Amino acid sequence: MADYVLAIDQGTTSSRAIVFDHSGRIVSTGQLEHDQIFPKAGWVEHNAEQIWSNVREVVGLALTRGNLAHTDLAAIGITNQRETAVVWDKNTGKPVYNAIVWQDTRTQAIVDELGGSEGADKYKAIVGLPLATYFSGPKVKWILDNVEGAREAAERGDLLFGNTDTWVLWNMTGGSDGGVHVTDVTNASRTMLMDLDTLSWREDIAADMGIPMSMLPEIRSSSEVYGQGRPRGLVPGVPIAGILGDQQAATFGQACFEVGHAKNTYGTGNFMLLNTGTEKVPSKNGLLTTVCYKIGDQPTRYALEGSIAVTGSLIQWLRDNLGMFEDAPDVEWLARKVEDNGGAYFVPAFSGLFAPYWRPDARGALVGLTRFVNRNHIARAALEAVAYQTREVVDAMKLDSGVELTELKVDGGMVANELLMQFQADQLGVDVVRPKVAETTALGAAYAAGIAVGFWNGEEDVIANWAEDKRWTPAAAEDERERLYRSWKKAVTKTFDWVDADVQ
User: Fold this and answer.
1) C-beta of residue 171 within 8 angstroms of C-beta of residue 208
2) Where do the annotations place glycerol binding (predicted)?
3) Which alpha helices (H) appear in 261-373, and where do they start and end?
4) 12 labeled binding residue
5) pLDDT for residue 424 is more than 80
6) pLDDT tens sequence across 58-111
7) Does residue 380 have a known ligand-binding role?
8) Is 198 flagged in the annotation as binding?
């Protein structure tokens, strides 16, 4: 009997496979990191073939560690790093270039050219997104413009495009031998190519970007059977039945089904989503309007999103580039050695600034330094930067939606950092709540797949399974909170206008 659902979480730094039981409990896992490729400043790439190899291996690890066979699985769900673009040959199954990662900024000139006299908001009323290097569409144009023979192959109909959800699904269902070329509405909403009202590709925008329609996957809901595992694969015949972009998956896994419910994921970057229900809310304050989820034939649910490029990756940078500590969790140990940040503020605009500023000209800055500041203060300033950036997004959401946040559900790797979570509650002035199952991204994808095949009955089962693990209540004085935030806002302005027109 099929008593479990498997989720594949294809993330920015690693690929994971997690098996869940009916109560939403983790049964077994497998995880492998993939290479982070930095060919030039501002360029970030992944080897898509390495990702696919790792996905196969982690699925095998999770099944082996759980002492399970593929016949024990009712369904498989996929969640993924969004906006990371893969272009491959449908006949050979080979990518024509490395995957260009969501953090990559090489497409700035393309973005500027596309905007022309109309600027960054040229397509925003249609797709909910400003023109920015963040999104997939301009990355595809870059590949077609810069990889020898790619445009000709695309015009012949030989090339396919997808975010990494589509790449994994296509390979799992047969690859060049009948692989299913599909994405879901949440991933499609991150390409700059999908109309948020009709949930279909816009031929005119694709034409502006020089992307043949034949490259684009079919858009489907987030919860339905797309295909089955290939006959000679690890999961032959198992229905692949759920796809959600990672942040939408976390929103689903956190049971944020009501209008006004919000979650914040602390990962490589930070991503906050606020459920706006069946209403598409345009943002006037630097947020994105996106699809939250669509379950089968049910109405589409929309969200406002605040995307922050660098949070967890700032801690990795302190570890890997500066050698400040050996293990990422050690940042909390350092930060606890001091009472405060010593006047230091760290604005990690490594890829420019995302929400709510959208300033590609910004670059990282460590300001407010005196000889008093030591590495412990810098560690604390890095953690505080995560909370300040989140507060900026919360403020923007309040202005756009009129909804006052009453508490914030949190997930992702950094929620284990209790100093950060307390400081976050202090900065927001509301409770911060961590669930018992912190792997909400994978869990959301599992729920979407399980609902599609009847393993779970729907949102009510997700709500019933959700349980609180820990809650942090604000403890800081109001005047101190505002003083710190005021200095942060000042620090942010010091990062603006760093990149000149003649600097790549």
Assistant:
1) no
2) 82-83, 134, 246-247
3) 312-320, 330-335
4) yes
5) yes
6) 999 999 999 999 999 999 999 999 999 999 999 999 999 999 999 898 999 999
7) no
8) no
CA atoms within 13 A on the CB side of 235: 35
228 is known to lie in a ligand binding site: no
134 is in an annotated binding site: yes
CA distance 92 to 89: 6
Q: Which residues contact 198 (CB under 8 A, 6 or more apart)?
A: none
Give me the torsion for CA of 503, 97, 320, 367, rounded to 10°.
30
Residue 13 known to bind ligand = yes
Distance (Å, whole) CA 41 – CA 62: 36
Judge whether 247 is annotated as a binding position: yes
Question: What is the identity of the amino acid at 147?
Answer: V
Amino acid at 148: E
Task: Residue count of the chain, please give it.
Answer: 504
- Which pLDDT band holds residue 297 (cuts at 50, 70, 90)? very high
Read off the pTM. 0.87
pLDDT tens for residues 211-224? 999 999 999 999 99
Structure tokens at 443: 């869990």
Residue 504 pLDDT more than 60?
no
Give the model's pLDDT for residue 500: 77
